[in-house]
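in:
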């Protein structure tokens, strides 16, 4: 009876995987995808409304969907699944910038305005594209020349974009300039007087999870290609994270730093400050670097940072995105972008308060110190199967993002998550 149940579950998972991927592949434009589209196919969105021939690189766009197809192919070796992944890869190859990586989206309309030649690491854009193309290159036995050459070119650009101190910028159009290596420091005077520069993306950047996603990418490059330079870049990044920890009494990290390694302004609502959200990402990144290198120095800042963040929790158990330098007061900007210390008039477009992951981080630190392997969470496959409709769609009624009305939407992140879950089940059978 148990064996029969397992067989039926595997069969159901296989049929659902193929039905969902067949539907989703039909939504491709030039092999690529957006973040979500309406059930009738008439509306397509990335971070904004997508043009008719436009696809998104920034996750959960094309590379995230491509990785889902690749995982599906590993579980169910149907040629059409690999072809969907290849099509997504070719779309990314066509949209790669002369600077080496990718920007947020690609518009294949020849009449569209050419993109600015700035490779971006923001929001995991270039990193996710690289991870997918590297995995696709491996699946194709490194024999597809355009895909392999695109990876080589993008990796070369990534390595040249790493500063001597191990940091990365948010974006670049050329190799970075040499700079002195210094530890983080608070400004001598009032932090409000720190200069605001137009090209803030050239700062040393940790904003929006850059550290964690860069660690993931360098580890994939090392695993797929055995590249020693990727491991060296990983250690350099770890060394920067050690340098970038702010002084006591705030032993955590800022979103970005200027050439003097002082927390710096970025956008008008991103002040020089110690950050709750990015500091949690840095803790995760340091633990991953430690696991890869076995060097205990990368673990040393994690426990003190967690303890500091725990003392900084807001009354509702969340963390402020920003804490004022030296005073540690939660720092906000109101709807007129004036610096304030209250949270009753915040712009709706930015997460000035974020969920705490400190309990998770403490458990992960204990696991890493014990040297035990990470346990994968068991997906709710039954719900995945039950919510898939006859056409192969996971339709969601709520608004997929701020400013988009409720309706019947199909989301790329839901598709990718569910395909990974089904693929994991099938690989275990």
């Amino acid at each position: 009876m148990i064996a029969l149940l397992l067989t039926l579950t595997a069969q159901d998972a296989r049929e659902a995987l193929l039905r969902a991927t067949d539907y989703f592949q039909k939504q491709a434009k030039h092999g690529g995808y957006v973040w979500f589209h309406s059930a009738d196919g008439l509306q397509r969105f990335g971070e904004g409304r997508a043009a008719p021939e436009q696809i998104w690189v920034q996750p959960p766009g094309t590379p995230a969907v491509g990785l889902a197809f690749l995982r599906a192919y590993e579980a169910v070796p149907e040629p059409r699944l690999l072809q969907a992944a290849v099509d997504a890869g070719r779309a990314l190859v066509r949209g790669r910038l002369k600077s080496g990586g990718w920007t947020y989206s690609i518009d294949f309309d020849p009449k569209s305005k050419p993109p600015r030649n700035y490779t971006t690491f923001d929001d995991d854009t270039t990193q996710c594209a690289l991870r997918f193309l590297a995995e696709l290159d491996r699946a194709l036995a490194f024999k597809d020349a355009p895909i392999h050459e695109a990876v080589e070119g993008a990796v070369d650009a990534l390595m040249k974009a790493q500063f001597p101190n191990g940091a990365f910028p948010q974006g670049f159009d050329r190799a970075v300039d040499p700079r002195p290596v210094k530890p983080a420091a608070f400004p001598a005077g009032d932090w409000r007087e720190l200069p605001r520069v137009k090209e803030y993306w050239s700062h040393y950047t940790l904003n929006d999870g850059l550290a964690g996603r860069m660690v993931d990418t360098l580890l994939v490059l090392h695993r797929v290609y055995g590249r020693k330079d990727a491991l060296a870049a990983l250690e350099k990044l770890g060394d920067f994270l050690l340098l970038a920890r702010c002084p006591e009494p705030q032993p955590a990290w800022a979103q970005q730093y200027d050439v003097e390694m002082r927390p710096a302004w970025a956008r008008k609502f991103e002040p020089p400050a110690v950050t709750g959200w990015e500091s949690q990402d840095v803790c995760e990144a340091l633990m991953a670097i430690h696991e890869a290198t076995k060097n205990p120095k990368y673990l040393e800042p994690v426990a003190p940072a967690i303890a500091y963040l725990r003392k900084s929790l807001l009354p509702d158990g969340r963390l402020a995105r920003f804490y004022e330098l030296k005073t540690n007061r939660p720092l906000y900007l109101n709807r007129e972008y004036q610096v304030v210390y209250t949270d009753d008039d915040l712009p709706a477009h930015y997460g000035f308060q974020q969920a705490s992951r400190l309990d998770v981080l403490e458990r992960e630190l204990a696991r890493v110190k014990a040297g035990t392997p990470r346990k994968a969470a068991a997906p709710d496959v039954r719900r995945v199967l039950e919510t898939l409709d006859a056409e192969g769609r996971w339709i969601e009624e709520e608004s997929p993002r701020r400013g988009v009305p409720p309706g019947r939407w199909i989301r790329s992140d839901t598709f990718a998550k569910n395909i990974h879950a089904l693929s994991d089940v099938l690989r275990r059978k």
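note: The chain is about 40% helix and 10% strand.
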